[in-house]
Amino acid sequence: MSSVAEKLAKKSTKRPTSKQVRLKLVYVDFWSAVKLSFLVSIALAVITIVVFFLVYTVLETTGIFENINGLYKDVAGVGDDLTAIFNLGRVMGFAVVVAILDLIVVTALGALSAALYNLSVKITGGLLVGFTNN
């Protein structure tokens, strides 16, 4: 009679069979692509605003703006102040404008890429993808 350990040893020597499936991607839903690209563009917009704020804060705390302003006054010889032009409100306003443009462009590119893929499937037949159950 065989023990439980022998049965487990026999089972462990067998290689599990893996079933492989080859599927063809022939359609991308337009509205799903638009929704996904909109969510990605929202994430990129938030990242853009945070990066603008962090870069401005680092440049302000290290004193780079004062050095550039002093260099500008020495070279130009006028009394204009660059720190009045590059204040936090204007920089963050520019960041919001860039983020809104990013939101529109990335969403439109996602929709356009889905539409172009659906059109190209008629010519190429789709994208062949292989899957396994391991």
Description:
The structure is a single chain. The protein is mainly alpha-helical and 134 residues long. Helix 2 packs antiparallel against helix 5. The longest helix has 37 residues. The mean pLDDT is 87. It is built from five helices and two strands, in the order αβααααβ. A two-stranded antiparallel ribbon has the order 1-2.
Structural class computed from helices and strand pairing = mainly alpha
Average pLDDT, rounded to a whole number, is: 87
Q: SSE string, helix = H, strand = E?
A: HEHHHHE
**Total DSSP helices:** 5
Number of strands: 2
Keywords summarizing the entry:
single chain, 134 residues, mainly alpha, two-stranded antiparallel ribbon, 5 helices, 2 strands, 72% helix, 9% strand, elongated
Helix/strand layout:
Layout: H1 4-13, E1 20-25, H2 30-62, H3 64-76, H4 82-85, H5 88-124, E2 127-132
Helix pairs in contact: 2-5
Question: Summarize this, please?
Answer:
This protein is mainly alpha-helical. The chain has helices at about 5-15, 30-60, 65-75, 80-85, 90-125; strands spanning about 20-25, 125-130.
